[in-house]
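Possible regression after last week's pipeline update?

I re-ran a chain I had predicted before the update to compare outputs. Posting the input and the new output here so someone can diff against the archived version. Not blocking, just want to make sure nothing changed silently.
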Amino acid sequence: MVAGAITGIPAAAADNKRLNDGVVANVYTVQKQAGCETDIKVNPKLRLAAQWHTNDVLHNRALDGDIGSDGSTVADRAARAGYVGEVSETVAINPALAISGIELINMWYHRPDYYAIMSDCGNVDIGVWSENSLDRTVVVAVYGKGDSAPPVTAPGRPFGQPGAGAPG
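New output (post-update):
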């Protein structure tokens, strides 16, 4: 009886939206503390580039930074996602099921190269993605200095626009 009850429980799906949004908020704070006057904005193209690299790093344990399993750089991935502009990224690999936003920002804040990226007032766009496995969490943030390309279109609607029947 108990075994039947346990097997009937649906698996929980991880939703890292809160962590990802927290990374954006923390980068915004770092930029304000650095004297930046512009507001960093989430860019769906950069989020897609971050998602690709996050999944690559999570599933290819030999990876430990910016270069993908196919030899791609952050610039390659951003361009493939349709972003035209200068980009950089920060990557966190935590050997645990999860990472808190405080742990993450502390990791990046105390690395001079990552702090320089986060506090760069020229970075006006950001895309963040994170994934978890049982023994590891990967978070990637891709920063951009401005996208000169038109919005990438998905079937029937551009990014950021409501789909058919969705409230506008």
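Follow-up from reviewer: compared with the archived run. The longest strand covers residues 125-133. Marking as no regression found.
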